[in-house]
Design brief:
Number of strands: 0
Radius of gyration: 16 Å
Number of domains: 1
Number of helices: 6
Order of helices and strands: HHHHHH
Strand content: under 5%
Distance between the termini: 27 Å
Structural class: mainly alpha
Length: 113
Amino acid sequence: MLRQKYTLVIICGALVVTISMGVRQAFGIFLQPISDDLGTGREVYSLAIALQNIILGLPLMAIIADRFGSRWIVLAGGVLYAVSLLLVPVIEGAAGLYLSLGLMTGLALSSTT
């Protein structure tokens, strides 16, 4: 029974990382279409992704996970990740892009890795 539990934990952990980081690696493909849709230059989208990378490296979520438990942080990160990706089609302007793809996605990804 114990071995099956560890196997399930490993499989679930691999799925979380695959889903969260797999989608993140595809963001470069959307640079031109999103920039065209917003009517901005490529630098706006690139800055949003740069903000995401900076926030991804912050130890904030690790500190919170130590206090409240990693189960809740991963769950909250998954929900935040879904919300941030759902906001992308409806945003207008650079501020929305910085908030959704930059701040929210960065925090969500740092909680799932």
